[in-house]
Amino acid sequence: MKGKVQALIKPIGIPRLIIVAFLGLLYVAAFFCKLPVNDLLNGHLVRVGMNGILVLAMVPAILSGIGPNFGIPVGIVCGLIGGLISIELDCYGANAFIVAALISIPLATVAGYLYGVLLNKVKGSEMMVGTYVGFSVVSLMCIAWLILPFTSMEIKWPIGRGLRTTISLAKRFDKILNAPFAIHIGKITIPTMLFVFFFAMCFVVWLFLNSKAGIAMKAVGQNSKFAIASGMNVDQNRMVSTILSTVLGAIGILVYAQSYGFFQLYTAPLMMAFAAVAAILIGGASSTNATIFHVILGTFLFQGLLVVALPVANVIVPKGNLSEVMRVVVQYGIILYALTKAGGGK
Amino acid sequence: MESKYILEMKNIKKDYFGNKVLKGINLKVEKGEIYALLGENGAGKSTLMNILFGMPVIHSTGGFEGEVCINGEKVNINSPQKAMELGIGMVHQEFMLIPGFNITENIKLNRETLKSNIFSKVLGESLKTLDTKDMEKDARVALDKLDMNIDEWARVAGLPVGYMQFIEIAREIDKLNVRVLVFDEPTAVLTESEADNLLDAMKKITDSGISIIFITHRLDEVMKVSNNITILRDGEMAATLKKEETNVMQLAELMVGRKIEGLTQKEESKEISSNQEIVLKTKNLRVGMPGEEVKGIDLEIYKGEIFGFGGLAGQGKIGIANGIMGLYPAIGEVYIENKLLKLESPIDALKNKLAFVSEDRRGVGLLLDESIDLNIAMTAMQVNDKFIYKFGFFTHKDSKGIRKHANEMIEKFDIRCTGPHQLTRRLSGGNQQKVCLARAITLEPNVLLVSEPTRGIDIGAKKLVLDVLKKLNAEFGMTIIITSSELGELRSICDRIAIITEGKLEGILRPGDSDVDFGLMMSGDYKKATRKEAN
After folding, report:
1. pLDDT band for position A345 (cuts 50, 70, 90)
2. Are strands A262-264 and B447-451 parallel, antiparallel or unpaired?
3. Is the pLDDT of residue A108 over 50?
4. B428 with B473, same domain?
5. B1 band by pLDDT with thresholds 50, 70 and 90
6. Each residue of B143-193: pLDDT tens digit?
7. Structural domain of residue A57, as residue ranges?
8. Would A333 be classed as within a structural domain?
9. Is residue A345 in some structural domain?
10. If we measure between CA atoms, which residue out of B100, B122, B101, B123 comes closest to residue B112?
11. Which residues are CB-contacts of B528 (< 8 A; sequence separation ≥ 6)?
């Protein structure tokens, strides 16, 4: 019996169990605070699906030894450009989503390549450099959003030059994944297609990780000397992983946007990397090892904490925006905690 | 009471976790003499010196037996500070100098002469001003003792290596109370003329009454300067001799000796004739492996033989296999079966059917956080597309095939593990080595290069590893190239053994050749000795 329990606990790890317990406690607290638990749960499920792929984008980067990809805004920006072009081309519905993805993937490939060139030159400090690459790209795009020659009135400010800060997708591909085949159980809605898409992406990444190239990538990340001695090209493998991560970032933001209902330009993508990093780390990944399981568990726990903790904290501490401050403290606290735990799920 | 001996070490015994490394060593150093300490790597020289310096590594592993006397008085040296107070100094092998400081500052580091100033009177010692003039004077005296006419205010960065060694010595003799100086292989990095200068300087130092313990493996230098010579072998005193009573040949023989560790010498080595097929040939191979530089090797290795590379640590034997496998920058030519091999390209070496078991097992040889089965399959998967399903452009690993192969290997090599899924990090050194070997053999190589196959593994595993190598050679005709620091091991399985000294080939011996030849070659005195004989 004891052995069985241990075998069950081991892959999850004690820290995860504590967080799961805490999440459960929050739900119970929400119930006693007379908050609409079913709404919270719906929000929770949707946010898992919409954030999952951005978290998944961390996996190749971590496994190839680059560490959590703090430069994911590079991919996010590519996804946004793809989305905007699909609107500019006047596409609607599923069409618009597919066009957006098809445009953003080659963009992200090129951007990921350039980012990979940079990362290969700064081995050992990828996390720091990546963070600032993310900041720089977002800032650079702030200028670009002002001068890019889009003409669609949905994208442009009605007066003057430049693009809007938030662009509604209501007419385009809002909830294109959330709505179809959604299953309603009582007051709870399960966004079926969103999950199907998320798990499909997880499966694709899993397939890649078990291909010859994926295994080489893992070997490079774990021991570059071993990889060299086995005839692998370290830089090339890191490049592949950076491109893959950037492309996933681009697709991730499209999924995020269709669920959210808006594109957010300018400084909105600035901090998105941190939420994704926090999620995978809370799921048990370390800066050197990550699995698909870590992605799913981590996204579930992290988004759950955010969704449930805020309203509960609001009820308990009604003064001002303390709960928002708490959210920030919790989010960065988790990143800090997780980064100090190089051992990951042990 | 003034004793005749400035330093006595009596019946020193030391073990690391039951592994005896010193088995009763006696040293008696007279005032003002040069006392030479000889021995192969691992003979116990550094352990003995660590005891003398009270290094923490000794005391954290249970201390030692025996006693140390300075000037006839028993002392308890429990820290390097204590050793310094007692006047024991050390000239390090690697230069412990601060490049950005000038010579005086380096010599007087942490022993500066100080002057008071206003601030120091209020705020204490550490704010005192340096008395530069006085320091320079002291430095000058020390440098003059060594006949160094270099300016004492020159910066250390950019000085030739030889000078740096002298500055270290100057730092030691500037310490007023110094009585015994240990020179740890001081000539290893010096050119011949620099080494001669150093030997002269050593004599001068002893003239001022300081005793020197001279650790080296260059026998001719020992004969030149030392008065008494002690040879260590496997933690035992092989002999203590007076210089007048011995010669280079005898020293060489004593140093190497015959080691019996359940390994018997190979009964008959295969006949090697020059018309045999050459499988691997090097022409002026130079490898820039830090600490194991190879400076031009010409060799021919025949098909189906077991070839050994021996020599002392740091002489370059390790660099050869690493260079051939493309792991370090290399120039020169390497031919595999008359085909020129691309250097600095591991994939090219692997594709030419070479396989390599690295001396750095945990650093290069293994993915410590992956399972045994993946470790074994990894290289073959990447190089030969083994264990891979192909679907057009896509590939997927053949988990079943990998598992099956791993199980076979585990049986074949008797890898002690909980199963093929176990992480290699959790295995013992010997079993890790077996995994490395299994990985190399999975490549089905024509030539297998193995570096330090038995380093840090127990005797049982050692024998198994060596037996496997012999078997591979006998059954599949695989050419095997072994690099090892353990001469006994090489002599037990090799057909021919090349001894590498100072990055060059000193000579090739058969396992049955005499201890004298092996000893002379390892110390780099073989060519000199034979030249003398010829004259």
Report:
1. very low
2. unpaired
3. yes
4. no
5. very low
6. 888 777 788 888 888 777 778 888 888 888 888 788 888 888 777 767 777
7. 13-340
8. yes
9. no
10. B101
11. B220
Check residue A338 and give its pLDDT: 66
Question: How close B395 gets to chain A, by Cα (Å)?
Answer: 5
Q: Does B350 contact A223 at a Cβ distance shorter than 8 Å?
A: no
- Would an 8 Å CB–CB cutoff place A342 in contact with chain B? no
Here the ipTM equals 0.80
Buried b (16+ CB within 10 A) or exposed e, B496-528: bbbbbbebebbbbbebeeebbbbbbbbbbbbee
Q: Please tell me which residue of chain B has the smallest CA distance to A233.
A: B347
- What is the distance between the alpha carbons of residues A162 and B176, in angstroms, rounded to a whole number? 78
- A308-339 confidence digits (pLDDT tens): 887 887 787 777 677 677 777 777 777 777 66
Q: A225 at the B interface (CB within 8 A)?
A: yes
- What is residue A226's predicted lDDT score, i.e. its pLDDT? 92
How many residues belong to chain B? 535
Query: Is the domain of B467 the same as that of B430?
Result: no
| Residues B319 and B453 occupy one common structural domain | yes
Residue B190 placed within a domain:
no
Residues B395, A207: C-beta atoms closer than 8 Å: no
| CA pair distance A160, B389, nearest whole angstrom | 58
Helix (H) / strand (E) containing B317: helix B317-324
Are B388 and B463 part of one and the same domain?
no
d(C-alpha B439, C-alpha A7), whole Å: 30
Pick the residue from chain B with its C-alpha nearest to A343.
B369
Amino acid found at B344? E
Host domain of residue B281: 261-353+445-535
Give yes or no for a contact between A253 and A108, defined as CB atoms under 8 angstroms apart: no
Enumerate the residues of chain A whose CB falls inside 8 A of the CB of residue B369.
222, 289
Domain count, chain B: 4
- Which residues in chain A have Cβ-Cβ distances shorter than 8 Å to B368? 222-223
> From the CA of A214, how many Å to the nearest CA of chain B?
9
pLDDT per residue over A177-214, tens digit each? 887 888 888 888 888 889 999 999 999 999 999 999 99
